[in-house]
From TrEMBL:
Keyword Signal assigned: yes
Organism: Halomonas alimentaria
Database matches in Pfam families: Oxidored_molyb (PF00174)
Signal sequence extent: 1-25
Alphabetically ordered keywords of this record: Signal
Domain Oxidoreductase molybdopterin-binding: start-end pairs: 79-146
Name assigned to this protein: Molybdopterin-dependent oxidoreductase
Length: 172
C-alpha cells in the first residue's frame, strides 16, 4: 500500500472514529501513542486527555495534507510550506468558537479570529522547503497565512498571527 493510500485510510479511520464516537458516548479520539505535538483545549467537541485533545505526529499526519508557497516577513524570497489547514483541524475536533489563542514554546501568544481560518487557507505547517520544522527553528508547527494570494494579508495586523513554535491552541 502506498504511503498516500495508507495516509488516506488512516484519515478515513479518524473520520469514522470522530463520527461514530460521540453517538456511542465513548471517548472518540484515541489516546496519543507518540510524543504530543499539539494540544487543543477549550470549546473542543472531541477530547482524549481530560477535556483537551492531545495530538501526536501520526494523528496530525492523518489530516489532509496541504502545500502553500508564500513570502513571509522573516525569510528572504518565497518558501514552500506543507502541513494541514487550521480549518480542517478545528472541523475534525468539532471545535467551535470565535477566537483561537495560539501559544508558542517561547511563551509568545496571539489571539486569532476563527473567521481567518474560514476566509483563508491558513496552514499549520510542519515542513518548510521539504525540511521538517524543528523546535529550534520555528517548529513543531508554524501558522502560515497565504500572504501572496491576498493583498490584505500583507500587513502587520496579520504578521503577529504567524505564530511559530506553536504547541497549543485554546478555542473560545
Ligand atoms: N513563537 C513566536 N511567534 C511569533 C513571534 C514570536 O515572538 N514568537 N512574533 C510574532 C510577530 S509580533 C510578528 S510581527 C511575526 C514576525 O516576527 P519578527 O518580525 O519579530 O521576526 O511573527 C510572529 N510570531
Ligand atoms: Mo510583530
Amino acid at each position: 500500500m502506498s504511503q498516500a493510500t495508507s495516509k488516506r485510510l488512516s484519515f478515513l479511520l479518524l473520520c469514522t472514529l470522530l463520527l461514530v464516537g460521540p453517538a456511542q458516548g465513548k471517548s472518540p479520539l484515541p489516546a496519543p501513542s507518540g510524543e504530543v505535538v499539539l494540544t487543543v483545549s477549550g470549546e473542543v467537541g472531541l477530547t482524549n486527555v481530560a477535556d483537551e485533545a492531545h495530538l501526536d505526529a501520526d494523528m496530525l499526519a492523518a489530516l489532509p495534507r496541504e502545500r502553500l508557497t508564500t513570502h513571509t516577513s522573516v525569510t528572504d524570497g518565497p518558501q514552500t510550506f506543507e502541513g494541514f489547514l487550521a480549518r480542517d483541524l478545528l472541523d475534525a475536533l468539532h471545535a467551535e468558537g470565535e477566537t483561537v489563542t495560539a501559544l508558542a514554546l517561547n511563551d509568545y501568544l496571539a489571539e486569532i479570529p476563527v473567521a481567518d481560518f474560514e476566509r483563508y487557507d491558513v496552514l499549520l505547517a510542519d515542513t518548510m522547503n521539504g525540511e521538517r520544522l524543528t523546535r529550534r527553528d520555528k517548529g513543531p508547527l508554524w501558522i502560515v497565512y497565504p500572504r501572496d494570494d491576498h493583498d490584505e494579508l500583507q500587513d502587520i495586523r496579520y504578521d503577529y498571527r504567524w505564530v511559530w513554535q506553536l504547541y497549543r491552541l485554546e478555542v473560545e
